[in-house]
Specification:
Blueprint: H1 7-51, E1 57-65, E2 68-76, E3 82-92, E4 97-105, E5 109-117, H2 132-136, E6 141-142, H3 169-193
Antiparallel strand pairs: 1-2, 2-3, 3-4, 4-5, 5-6
Length: 194
């Protein structure tokens, strides 16, 4: 004998299906949560070693600049002396949020940068992770050796010194903004610590 199709039976069936699907999703989340967190921590540690000189340990912190919080890692040598800071900076790129880790030595030189995440266009803006000419500009960058506009680096199209990725000016501007923000956070950290 088949059940008669009515509103009550449809609601019960739909509720049961929703509960089963919710349980499956919750289970998948619980199973994958720790491996995802470990992968993210491993990626951050790898990025830290790329953007900073060799260090023995690090301490986490957060600094607020103009109402925006910037997480950072303070890198220390074996004697506890500060080697530098790895500051995470985010801004809007062409395809979405661009997140960059900027390593700045204790004397204020950008040691290196690394993209943590992006949604830029493959083959264009996504080159911010692979274009050697663009990436090499940031290694050893000294703010005092560049022409600044209002105390900030700008891309050459805007009259600055930073060469943009070909056909990706918006991504290049966003990347430059991330470095500028990280440097402002670095200066705030130094002011706070002194």
């Amino acid at each position: 004998m088949a059940l008669k199709s009515n509103l009550k039976n449809m609601v019960i069936s739909l509720t049961a299906i929703c509960l089963v699907c919710s349980a499956i999703l919750a289970g998948a989340y619980a199973i994958t949560k720790k491996p995802i967190e470990k992968a993210q921590a491993d990626k951050l540690m790898k990025s830290l070693t790329e953007v900073l000189p060799e260090f023995a340990s690090s301490e986490k912190g957060v600094i607020s600049v103009d109402g925006v919080e910037y997480p950072y890692d303070k890198a220390l040598d074996a004697d506890g002396n500060v080697i530098g800071y790895a500051i995470t900076s985010k801004t809007a790129g062409f395809g979405g949020t661009l997140s960059v880790l900027v390593g700045i030595t204790a004397d204020g030189i950008v040691h290196n940068t690394s993209v943590l995440s992006h949604s830029e266009t493959p083959g264009l803006g996504a080159k911010c992770t692979s274009d050697e000419k663009f990436m090499s500009q940031w290694k050893g960058l000294d703010f005092s050796a560049h022409s600044l506009t209002d105390g900030r680096l700008t891309v050459s199209k805007d009259g600055g010194d930073i060469d943009a990725i070909t056909a990706s000016t918006i991504t290049s501007r966003a990347y430059t903004t991330c470095v500028n923000q990280a440097y402002a956070a670095f200066q705030a950290i130094i002011n706070e610590e002194n």
